[in-house]
Amino acid sequence: MKKTFTLLQLLFVFTLPLFLLPSTARAQLEVGVCEFEDDCLFIAYESIQEESPTSPSLVVVLTAFLQEGGRCNRIDGLILSPAGGVPTLVTREDLEENQNFIELVVNRAIFTATPDVLVATFRYINIPVIGVQIPIPTNVVDLQARLDSDDPCLPITPLPVELASFEGKATQSGISLEWETASEQNNSHFEVERSADGKAFEQLGTVAGNGNSSVFLTYRYLDKHPFAGLNYYRLKQVDFDGTYEYSNVVAVTAAEKSEQLQVQLLPNPCLQGDCQLNLATATPGQPVRVQLQDLTGRVVFEQSLRDDGEQLQLTRQQLKNLRGVFILSAEAGQEVVRQRVVLE
Fold it and tell me: H or E stretch including 120?
């Protein structure tokens, strides 16, 4: 830690004069409007992003490439000093590791008033006495972002909803889902979707989003009636303008419940009436009444069955070529369970 602190101190001492140049001296530097290129360096603004319209900071994203060969090999990296931000050292190795992208956090008011980043190429010199390398700036470029409204070459764009985690676990109350966002922009809501096979998903419920946020937020949803065995879940994040994107899929095995009626139609959606019905009751052989209702509550299919542990094949004739969204229900004694199904 002591050596690192010493290096940072020396970097500050060696580079501070460059970044405190008066405006008249800066005018004599090489200037790049949105991008700059010479024989060894190409650097350009990629985007200027905001977490929310009221956020006090911006994220300046740049792309940079350092050429190799000849005098370019003497360049070990870049020192970037943005208006409203702190000097940042980026080596060739850093550029390669981050796929040539650089992110700088800046004060919104300062950078908007003076949208500049001073970019200095540097080379290392060894200081044997203290055993460290010191970056010595060479060429310096004043890279200007041009955020003026008359002819902007870069817009300020919002950061998307960033999903930090999405997990599920089985409990005696059902399957508990929890997810966390690191930032949100125009986040209307999340739709929680479930699947029995990991391919065909149905919507279970909706959880309201927080619109715009730059802090970590946690959301929860409880699936009180999961399928027996493995359940697959995903999130559909929807913006206020209707655009959406899906999360990764998580798989959770439901906890066993010895006294619970279960009904499951596979596959769901059911194609051309060719599907199977799975039943499970607390007592093998117990009579079960199965109904299929449309969204108005009208019963379109009804049959009394017994739980014999076998899958029941439904036919097109039984379902009478029904198409659309229906509610499948099963009743055994005092227990009633329901499932939303789609017939196509």
Answer: strand 116-127
Q: Where are the alpha helices (DSSP H) in 115-199?
A: none
Question: If DSSP codes are grouped into helix, strand and coil, which group holds residue 147?
Answer: coil
Model confidence over 251-294: pLDDT tens digits? 999 877 545 677 777 777 877 667 777 777 766 677 888 888 88
- Domains of the chain and CATH, by start: 2-157 (2.60.40), 160-253 (2.60.40.10), 262-343 (2.60.40.1930)
The one-letter amino acid code at 129 reads: V
Alpha carbon distance 314, 321 (integer Å)? 11
Rounded to whole angstroms, the Cα distance separating 26 from 36 reads: 16
Q: Which two tokens stand for residue 27?
A: 């005018």
Over 195-218, what HEC string results? ECCCCCCEEEEEEEEEEEECCCEE
Please state the separation of Cα 93 from the chain's center in Å: 26
Sheet of 262-266: strands edge to edge? 262-266, 275-280, 312-314
- C-alpha closest to that of 82 among 63, 64, 99, 59: 59
Contacting residues for 16 by C-beta, under 8 A, at least 6 apart:
none
Helix/strand/coil for 191: strand
326 has which bridge partners? Answer: 294, 341
User: Three-state DSSP class for 241?
Assistant: coil
Q: What is the pTM of this model?
A: 0.49
> Dihedral, CA atoms, 201, 202, 205, 211, nearest 10 degrees?
50
Q: In what order do the strands lie in the sheet with 30-33?
A: 30-33, 132-144, 116-127, 77-82, 88-91
Task: Classify residue 270 by its DSSP letter.
Answer: B
As a whole number of Å, the CA-based R_g of the chain is 31
With H, G, I as helix, E, B as strand and everything else as coil, classify residue 117.
strand
Pick the more confident residue, 285 or 93.
93
Host H or E run for residue 109:
helix 108-113
Residue 312: how many other CB atoms lie within 10 Å: 14
Phi, psi values for residue 216, rounded to 5°: -70, 130
Residue 211 backbone class (left: φ over 0; alpha: ψ -120 to 50; beta: rest): left
